[in-house]
Protein 1
Amino acid sequence: MPDFRNVGFLTGILLLFVGVMMLLPLGVSYCYGDGDSNAIIWSMIITVVTGIALLFLRRKKKELGLREGFAVVTFSWVAAALAGALPFYLSGAIPTFTDSLFESMSGFTTTGASILGAHNPIESIPHGILFWRSLTHWLGGMGIILLSLAVLPMLGVGGMQLFRAEVPGPTKDKLTPRIKDTAKILWMVYLSFSVLEILLLWLGGMNLFDSACHTFGTMATGGFSTKSASIGYYDSRFIQYVIIIFMFIAGTNFALHYLFLFRGRIGRYWSSREFRFFFFLVWAFTLLLVIHALITRPGTGLETSFRESLFQVNAILTTTGYGTTDWEVWGAFPQILLVMMMFVGGMAGSTGGGVKVIRVQVLLAQIKIELSRLIHPNAVMPLRIGDKLIDDGIVRNVLAFLLAFAIILTVSTAVLSAMGIDMVTSFGAAIASLSNIGPGLGEVGPTDNYGWMPVAAKWVLIPLMMLGRLEVFTVLILFSRHFWRR
């Protein structure tokens, strides 16, 4: 049985942090004078008071165990989403609490699925609320990096276990021996990239407000935009290429960024088999889309086809979800490629969602071994990624994760279909939520939104976003009877 007093204490610390961060949209609200400041103030008061109340639950001299670790990760994300929904709901920008929670969970999990659309356009939302909406992305993105690099491996789950098995960097060359110091370093890397992107977008013609909001969405691979037409609104090659670069950066393991920026080890990128495979996927999918575009849409032009293809490949593969065009009109073949990318996602230790590149590599390597065993049934064939041996326990973890992912996707698609939603849209919404992408297929495509969906469907997608963001098992373990036994 987990010690919920310590779980509550740590959740309270998180709520205090979320409440303090509401000062930033409050400042934006005062600058623009849109009348949303009172809602932000009340949201901040409720969040901070709740956080302070939870601090009194702490038990002294009580170490955090595995059970408490799993509980803290899950409950903290739920608490953050609930607190994050308050500014949307209290301001009236999003009139129902279900929609407010959907938007907040989508923000903190960096999914980018939105209920805002034709009947409630993004441009009609007050600036302070819009800033908070994008800020939830940025906060959630940093939270995911800290979880994947520092917390989840300690609990025995998460893609970074695979990264550590495949690349010696974070084990032999640990970032720091203490999580506190690691957090500071990662915040510095994350903040540095964010400041750089804000400046570049500002130089490219965006105003400072839009530059910050789109940077939050890019670095967190979230995709919330301040415009209904997303990045396509700006019609700027420079802006699109800047966002392409930073989407790729955000989809790359931040431990590699640290080794480059702080230790000058640029070779770590290419020595990582996962990075090389990720790099290959980006350019392979881009090349296929460009060739298809030149054949089916010859009037588009080479540069435009290349830019649109490269942008959408990075947006989907890194699970950012930004758009410059409606790729649903490209035809069936590009959509199939994009769906394949939705499953893969970014690298372990990045802000990207999906099953992660390294898990796909392990799966492909295991398939190769099973094919070889058909010819050589008595041979001993350990699984390797490059020259690194992958432990059998990690292989089992990967296969179980992928099976759980597939089952959850199938069941959730069936449940959504039972609500009268067509199969393509049901699958698109399920995979977009579970992989934290945002735009899906059918009626939730790149130019659509989730606002029209039944309330029950939104309550299916809300936990799907969290399941995908927290590596599935971190949440599912709470429903196991073993978790509650002493």
Protein 2
Amino acid sequence: MKLKIRGKKKLQGVVKISGSKNSAVAILAASILADEEVTIRNIPEIDDIKSQINILEEHGYSVYFKDNIFKIKPLKKIKPDFLSDEISKLRGSCYFMGACLAKYHHIKIKKIGGCNLGKRPLNYHFDGFKKLNIKVKEKENKDYVILKTNKIIANTIKLPFPSVGATINLLLASVKAKGTVTIENAAIEPEVADLGNFLISMGAKIEGLSTDKIKITGVDYLHHTDYIISNDRIEAGTYLILGAMATGNGITIENVQPYYLKSLIEILRDSGVEINTGEHSISVKRTQKLKPIDVNVGVYPSFPTDLGPLISIYMTQIEGTSSIQETIFDNRFSHVEEIKKTNVLASINGKTLYITGKSKLNGAYMCAYDLRCAAALVLCACMANGISTIDNIEVLFRGYEKPVEKLKALGLNVTIENKSCSV
């Protein structure tokens, strides 16, 4: 699939942000823990969610999904073998491990997929599981892992790194444990708190969300809930960066919590962008000459790794040299060789990317290799003169709801070609 964009710098309009991808994939996995039917609202209609729903239906769950509303009825017993090809497409499918261990005490699961961002081992997850009396069996020549326990026993787990995935999986596994599980050095990302609040709404006992020490006291029963997930701060950041580059009358982003984008907002303001925040909105407008920036990626509340490739496109619109240092993933700069085709001046030294602006960008044929790479290429195409074609654009639809419609509403000429390609 290919996306064609005719670049246009004078953009303006309103973008309504969808539900959080990273919250949704965790909460949908958690929904199988419920002992009654649950309803979850504001679920984005994206490919990762469609894959997750396919997985649930393959295991016999009765699922309803329409107009961003998801409903699921509980099953007392399933065969917890998660071996379909959908598993290998979706990094978030690893959360079925924690949920199945809590409910069924057993899971066989295919090795996890998702974007190729370098080494993304599950050792923090597995080490934590072992402290909860869970046996982990990995076989070198097999494409699956087996985890099982006779009962989950309370313990204190100190994570070597505040991994979002490990924190979520351990939280899920502990919800029905005997006693109280403590997770130290836990991730404090908003998506972890969103999942925790969903579980609390079903009757789970959880303390310390949004802190680095979470306590989970096991319960026997999780009841019905009707829960609204938070909006996607990474999608909001994407359009905020686009608005900071555009030279029109400004872009307003609605359905957003500005506090969760504090690091990005501070960087853009320091660079010379006018930003006004409301309770659930952000207005952004470029009003003066932009100043170079140096960005250090880190765990929340530092600058998020998911926005690293996107902020590098903003740097192309600034005279002088700016930099971004990546500290989490090894392969976060897959977009760099592609944006160079538009005349971007970029170089990588270790884990630091340097961008020298402001050169004239021209439309080019580019290929997307992962979700955030695709978003970065879209932003680059928006700022380039002429028409750009982005191949393998289907990866963008893994995490962005209705991106073509939202870009068109800002004044861009965007079309999709449904032709297959290889990368």
Protein 3
Amino acid sequence: MVMVTRRQYLRRTGAAGSIALLGSTAGCSGILGGGSSGSETLGVLTTLDLDVGKATVRGAELGAQVANDEGILDSDLSVESSNTEGTASSAVDAHNTLVSRQGADATIGTFAEQTAAGIMDEIAETETVHLNVGAAAPALAGQVAEDYERYKPWFRIAPINAAFFVADLLNFAEQFAVGQQGWENAVIFREDAAWTGQVAPALKDAVGGLGMSIEDDIVFSLSENNFTTYMNQIDDTDVDFIFGLVAEAGKGPLLSYEESGVEKPMVGDLVASQSPQYLADINTENSNVISRTFTTWGSQLSDAAQEFVDMYESEYDSRPTKPTWAAFGSYVATQMYARARSEGGDSLDDTVTAMEEETFELNQTYSVYGPDEEAPDGNSYPHDLKYGPDFFQPTWSQWRDGEQVTVYPDKFANAEFELQ
């Protein structure tokens, strides 16, 4: 494989001429200002012991290094990170450390839903642009819709709003599960978290229109560490497949599934299986998990996306060794913010307005809804990632013969699903 340097990547994608970051004034607590001779700091808030957190940090680092290698800044753009530890209180402390003590001009991240919700008021009070990469709860965009002036510094760059999860799950169920595989019924297996509490009821209400049924809704606590009973319950249920919704619970539920011998495919949001090291974690070469991967190295890639993958792989050799959606998302978030700072003025309002107008292409189209735009479901989700075939459409992938392959949608697919 031919590796691509950051300089080559910028030259080929044409990004170099459009990215510039304006410096901050020390002690501004995230409020934009300063001149080009100052420094700019991006603070990454995430669960640093998880692959998704490490990927988020790395995407931001690559985005910053691209700007620095091209000499966009008179001084380096730096990236600092702080561990949210998956709790709201730790997230508030981490945000305070990055913004108030280290002078971060913007922040990126927050994977767990409670951490994302926990810092919303911190974002508002410090007037610090936050680029959400991780949390999917609709309530976050809902706060922007309810009080735009207060919460306008918040933007979700990845993944899509969980309000679109159901539409995407239903598209997948109709076109792939029912249309291609002929599956007719399922059981839901999910963690007890805010996002699954919104997705599961809507899913159960809607699948009847597709000619399929949900036979059971199995919910487990985030503190659960023994899933044998759950696997036995699933195995005893006469269904074709499992809708899995597992994110904050980590890899434990999926390891139990893989070891249980349950032959029903598990499909859905299964974050641990998105890691490039998933097969090593489960000690096998194949899996019947089909995970919504959003966008990864394991799909049909545009030239720009392939070059980004090469750049990531040349830079990092520890897990995650390939860029997951979180790395794609934080890299794009860094670039969108950089463009907005370059094209807008120094004020928060200028940056917010410019962010609302930004579009970035990296295999997917990344763009956010404006305050007056209507989403496909008829609701308003200001500053949320736009969803749909013309914007961001998640990929669905399986691990097979030691490789991650994408099986849906057709425009990103490079393989067909095979039951292992």
Protein 4
Amino acid sequence: MGATMLLRALLKRPTPSARNPVQATWLLGRIDLGHVRRYCAAFGFSGDAVPLTFLYLLAQRAQLATMLEGDIPFRLPGLIHVDNTLTQHGPVLLARPLAIATALHMQPPAPNGALHCVLETRAHDGERLAFECASTYLVKRGSRRSGDKPAQQELPAGTAAGGWTLARDAGRRYAALSGDWNPIHLWPWTARLMGMRAPIIHGAHTMAKACAQLEQASGRRMESIACAFRSPAPLGAQVSLAAGPEAGQFAAICNGRVAVEGRARFA
């Protein structure tokens, strides 16, 4: 998940006649304890158990490898992560190999022409299903009618549940931790090269930070989370976390807009 993979992603050409779905299975020999501890320290997770959102890093590697090795009908640069679900089925053991199967499904075009793909990942420890992850990406933006204005977001009702400040180098530090070196998260000049006004934090970073603070508040481990990534959170900004009126609901709010909203389930 370093410079070589990034270069391959930038150079990979689409195959219009690619099959649907694209499928592959990858073997992870073991999980590095040092990596888990660095992740826990970065977000505030307690103990040495594998946090739920750490599993996204494993799924993301398999998903990217599947797209790089298979024929896909779109270019990888420009994909926008719009939502993600994670479910853990019991403990994930560091020394146990995981068979990580991924299937990429192209969705039918939306009425406005927007295209999405869904990457479904299931990791097995022998015969046991260890965890599942589904990631939805916007492949092609839909058309907007002349005169249409973006819909105004209504901030959700809820109670304060935490918050954090995004450091200017948070994107680079998370990239080193996760292996996701998308240029839009790194420096102002790399973000501008990709059409962004300023670098933004990874959606998975916000998901993990919210997960850690919700676990701290409840004193329980999270076993599933479903997130929708609504708007970008620029580096250097303040993020506030709100708990919704229903059990497990939450929203991360940045610059007066919902950056991430979702629902969690605790063990």
